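I hope you will forgive my troubling you with a question about protein structure. I am sending you one protein, given as its amino acid sequence and as whole-number tokens for its backbone shapes. Thank you for your consideration; the sequence and its tokens are set out here:
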Amino acid sequence: MGIAAGSLIALMFRVSDVFLWGFIGVLTARTLSVEDRGVYATAIVVTSTVGGVSSLSHATGYFVSNRGRTPPEVGATALSLAGPVAALVSLGGLGIWLAGGGGDSRVVGLAALSLAPAVIRNTSLGVILGQGSVLKYNAGGDAAIVLAMVSLVSWVWWLDHRTAEGALQAWTAAQYGSLLPLLVWGRSWWAWMLRHRPDLDLLKGMLRFTAGTSAGSIVGLVNYRIDQALVFGLDSREGAAIYSSAIAVAEGLGLFSGAIAIGAFRRVGNASRTEAAHITATGIRHTVLVVMCGGLAAALVGPVLIEFLFGQPYRNAGAPLRILCVGTALAAPLALMNLYYVNQLGRPRLPLLIGVLSLLVSVCAGVALIPPLGTSGAALATTLSYGTATVTSTIIFLRITGLRFVELWRIQRSDVAAYFALAGHVLRAAWARLRRTGGPVEVEPAEPG
């Protein structure tokens, strides 16, 4: 599958994610108190962050796409470690939840219970993405969101469990249900596991690689969510709920760069360093082109949309949203440069060092700005940290690749023309198929640019 086709598939899934998460956000805002929603949103942020960095997803994807190891071997070896770890986490969370005497301890137990399936899911999805199976990768990730939406509607709204604990119960049940597709897609991994012992050398290599990527991911994701936690601690639970709504809209600007990174994952890993650098540069230019337009639209429409969907208590989310639109636009190219560092160069320490610098800026600025400015101060701190990360990463990327600055940031005529060419190709192919068969149209998009 080409980069354009993979990116389009990933983008469609990510756009659907916006609607799914938006529906979940509206549902929890309308059914939970502002304070309970703050607790629920913060618990989801923390567990999602820990689940993302504690899996072997980066390593499994790297060893399949870049090192040429077979998916069954990589999947089985990775799950031989991730499976027992997830089981221990589940047992620990269950124990805390059953033994907890207060609401806070039961929330912690449920959060731990929801963490275990995330470790298994992310590890497995890394193998699938390394194979270039963009459709399965996105469908497997979205299964958790779809099931969460169904669970929240049934348990929280319909059966009236309108508390933070009730919402987390629904969320946790959905996380375990989302593993069912992976059991089917990974059946060759289980067959390999029954016939072979885990490859210890491969496991050691994945652990070494994961040590670097996990450290970078921890720093990156903490930096990505530290503003939410700082608002929760330095402002209020109500402020955390309002700020989470602003984040939900602003994060939509990262859809395009994330989609290109997913579509280019295998290609960047397999290509030569020079080719991979040019693929990355092209992706960054397309990201800048789309994000400039999207950021302006989000800043203008977003505040009205938040109040309309979430209700009047969330009207104060407008000010931080406008600031976050700038910060999210600045951060958009980072996903593509990090993909080059990790999946092409095999150097996860670079994103780690950049992330540490960005995190320091975010924490220091957040501590200084949130007490006097509230959620707007958190948005300003986040924007400063994202800008620092992008400037630093750009300098490093240009020095490593030898590319010129304009190759990353100056939109070329061919970049704009590529969209018209892609649209024309799709329409011509669709019309030709329709005239030839009169049946359903299935089109494989051409590579733009």
Notes: The mean pLDDT is 81. The first helix runs from residue 3 to 31. The chain has 19 helices and no strands. The radius of gyration is 22 Å.
